[in-house]
Amino acid sequence: MSTALIQLAGLTKAYPGVIANDSISLDIQPSEVHALLGENGAGKSTLVKMIYGLVKPDSGHMQMNGHAFEPSEPRAARSAGVAMVFQHFSLFDALTVAENIALGMENPPAMRDLAARIREVSETYGLPLNPAAKIGDLSAGERQRVEIIRCLLQDPKLLIMDEPTSVLTPQEVDILFETLRKLKASGTAILYISHKLEEIRALCDTATILRGGKVVATCDPSQTSARDMAELMVGGTLATPTAKPMETGPVALRINALSHPAPSAFGMPLRDISLDVHKGEVLGIGGVAGNGQDELLAALSGEMATKPGAISLNGTDISAKPPRIRRALGLLAAPEERLGHAAAPDMSLVENAMLTGSVRENMETNGFLNWSAAKRFADHIISEFDVRTPSASNAARSLSGGNLQKFVVGREVLQNPDVLVVNQPTWGVDAAAAADIRQALLDLAANGAAVIVISQDLDELMEISHRFAALSEGRLSKPRDAAGLTIEDIGLMLGGAHGMEVAHV
Amino acid sequence: MDLSSISLTLLMATLMVAATPILFAAIGELIVEKAGVLNLGVEGMMITGAVCGFVVTIETGQPYLGFLAGAAGGAALSLLFAFLTQITLANQVASGLALTLFGLGISALIGQSYVGLKPERTPDLFPEALADIPVLGPILFSHDLILYLGLALVVSVWAFLKFTRAGLVLRSVGENHDAAHALGYKVVRIRTLAILFGGACAGVGGAYLSLVRVPQWTEGMTAGIGWIALALVVFASWKPGRVLMGAYLFGGLDQLQLRLQGAGVAIPVEYLAMSPYVITIVVLVILSADKSGAPASLGRTFHASQ
Lengths: 505, 306
Description:
heterodimer, A: alpha/beta, Rossmann fold, 2 domains, six-stranded mixed β-sheet, B: mainly alpha, ABC transporter involved in vitamin B12 uptake, BtuC, 13 helices, globular
């Protein structure tokens, strides 16, 4: 089509050992919201980086409005009208909102005029922002507003958004969509990358699905079911985790009025958290990152000692017990950060298996380590959880994020815990592996363990939890039965939209 | 003991001279650290600057050429650091320490045959009539061009970081090099330029030591001033104004303790000699209790992986 805003033809980019993009062609029309779908490693990021001028294609052509478009650097792409909101925000914590925005503009006006324009644009689109505020003090939703306004100030023709909703509450997502629809109405094309298929069905006009660096399908998302799109992404049928009906057992873990000051300057205090978790149940804890998830996990795992009486396991007070004792008693935890917290990046999988498994799997006697037992345990995890690695002696760092996540969760699940606490068990894991991990957690609960799943992925929590509680500003809501909860209910439990309002234009 | 022999006017005049080497080195290092690079080689770059400046002044009889040579010497050594840390991605702490040891060694080698010589005097900027004004004259008008340049440099660096786009880009690179790279700024190039600037400043500071402050060449004559400059940047919370204050505080205490020694105060010389270091750091630690922190990417190696 000659009217296309952007035309990509045969774009190819190879890295040593992998073809990230293999002859990709797609068109984006003005005023079109175009979704880009695919598993981790399908080549979405490489593709948008080429459009934004961060990566040079090995071969292929790009055209904008019928003219050759070959940005050699982001500056050139920006001046041609391409703007991008990054997945991991590209913001500077110590600088102000106005300074951050100036850094992303080609010819920024003087600071005073810029501040006035930021106010003007942010009010037009219902995204209130104070230009003089420091980024470090803002919430995730507010940071995203900064990124979006930085793009809007340049009147982009094409706005690229990489996983924009992963850090937002449902209400914030609604407001973002409202803003994007206004933009679409004013003629801006949007290239929208997301894992969340329901969002794409609600927002996008066209979807291009990538798998293994190739375009495998183009479809109209409003006419295609989420399941079909997921199967196109995975290239196979998708097993949905099935939960057995829960039989409530006795209380396994009791948290009683747990309060704790913030452990660091950017941490969150825990405020009066009370909770009973029963044997055989999966309790989901939802919430936007930074609302006390890490602190709650640290308090439960034993990394952070709490006041006496706050946490008891099977009736014993364990508040002052360190992690190893808690492990011996049957309380295991898998933290969110894979590299450096859940696993030691430069140690082998065998060593990593030893690190948390030694207490429960009899891998040490009188202070001496039994490496052959650790090797057996690591091999057991690898075969049981389908961890793709050449061998158990490979360093944890060398595994892809999804594979390491399977290892880290599997390591805890296979130690037969009485209580397992996991934070973001499927973060950055592709759909098939995520389904396996969820199934393993459900099976663990069915065999009588109590499982606490802390996650930002509400769909995941709805799928596997028996009960659901929300964590907001370090406070935990009363748990409610997950069956019958709507996304709106959850949004309100999470603390609503943090002062955002719908666009005025 | 005769404290009345200490003239406050003269003390003020000499403390400015004593503070200038530290001021140059610290303001240069401030720019380097604002760009996210921790260069522990300040001492080595200073002493290289000191010997280069001294040698060129002796050979040409031109002190200003000497200062240029000092800047060039410091910058040349910092270029080595830039190559190690920005191109070969070596560890910054280890490279900086090596730079200091290398600088001390090579300066001793270059300066071997210049020990004991006296360099051409650096001329004062203002005519003697101004310098003869009572009290104000010796303090404000009896110095050389380089000292005033140092003061101007502090103001320029402050304005550069606060008001210019280039300064904003430099700070952004130091705050979050991945984000700066994603926005299309050339992280390695900006950092290399900052390192060169820091090296040149340290070199001028060193040359001031051997040409004005002492003025003589002796091996290892920086005697830890480079380390004080490094500490100053941290405890000044990366603020040019506080760097100036810290440098003058150190210079003042240094001169005062010399005079107290001269006046025969009944405190052992060792305590007096260490007092400027201790007091300067204590004062700056107290001042740095506010929340302004280090550049977030300070000391981290940047690699533009895709």
